[in-house]
Amino acid sequence: MIKSLKKFSIFLASVALLVGLQSEAFAAKKSRTLSKTIKQDHVKCGVSQGLPGFSNADAAGNWTGIDVDVCRAVAAAVLGDSGKVKFTPLTAKERFTALSSGEVDVLARNTTWTLSRDADLNLTFVGVNFYDGQGFMVRKSSGITSTNGFKNGISVCTNTGTTTELNMRDFFNSKKISYEPVAFEKADEVVQAYDAGRCDTYTTDKSGLAAQRTKMKNPDEHIVLPETISKEPLGPAVRHGDQVWEDIVRWSLFAMIEAEEYGITSANADSLKTSENPQIKRLVGSEGELGTLLGLGNDWSLNIIKQVGNYGESYKRNIADTGILPARGPNALWTNGGLLYVAPAR
Ligand SMILES: N[C@@H](CCC(=O)N[C@@H](CS)C(=O)NCC(=O)O)C(=O)O
Fold this sequence. Notes:
This protein is α/β, with parallel strands linked by helices. Helix content is 41%, strand content 16%.
C-alpha cells in the first residue's frame, strides 16, 4: 500500500514537472520578447534624441511624445504599468541596428515605413501613428515663399540615414536644380547649422520642421513652404520573427486609435465597462477574451486607455497643446475625414 502510494506520488510529481516545463516552453515559444519583457519588467524602446511632440526628454529625464506613448501603451498592456519603459535615444543611422541587435524591442522613432526598410531590414512595421510628408523651411528674409523660388546652388541642411536625403535627391534632380547637401548624423547639429545660416533651406518631415522650429533662436523668422514632396507614414517597428510581440505592439497602437473612435478616454474608461455597445465593452475588457489571444491579461487595453489615454488625448497633449501642429490634418480619425482607420479589436 505504502509502496503504491509512493509510486503514485512520484508519478504525480513527474506529471507536474512535465506540465510545468511544457507550459514554460510554450510561453517561451509564444514570444521570446514577451517573456523577456516580463522578466526584466520593462519595455525596451528606441526613440529619437529629442524631437518635441514625438519623443523628447525634459531636464529631469522624463520622456513625452506620441512615439513615447506607443512605448508606454505597450508597457501598460504587458506589465500593467505605463511607467515601465526604458528609453534609448537613437540617431536616424543607429536606429535599425539597435532594433535588430535586441538593444531595443520596439522602435518608436518617427520612422517612415518604406518597402526597402520592410523587405531588406530585420524589422516589421506594425502600423502608422502619424501620417506625414517632407517639406522645406527657409528664412522669411530670403523672400522665398515656394519651392519654385529655389535657385541653382542652393545649400540644404539635412540628416544622414533618413528617407529625407533620398527624397531631397529625387526632388532636386527631377527639377534639374543643382544643390549642395549639408548633412549631419545628429538632428541638433542640423538645426544649429541651419539656424546659424550655413544653409539656405532645411528639409525633413513637416512634423519635424514644426517641432525643430521650436528650438531655433527666433522661430518666427522661419517659414515652412507649402509643398509636400513625399509620403512619410511614420510608425512603430519590431524585429522580424516574433509574431506575438508584433501583434502586441500593433494592437496596443490600434487600441488607442479605436478608443478615440468610440469616445473612450482615460477619464471615462472604467465607467464604460457597463456600456451597451459591445465594441466599447471589448476595448475596456468587460466582454470577450481579446487579451488572452495576445498572451496578455484581459485588462490590457483598459490599462492602455486609463494610463496613456486614447490617440486623440495623446495627440492633444503632445502635438496640439504644445503648439507644434494644432490641426489634426490627415491624422484625424476616418470618421472626421482623416486617414486614421484601424482594424477592429474583436
Ligand atoms: N522619417 C524619416 C526621418 C527621420 C529623422 O531621423 N528625422 C530627424 C529630423 S526631424 C530626427 O528624427 N531628428 C531627431 C533626432 O534625431 O533625435 C525617416 O524615417 O528616415
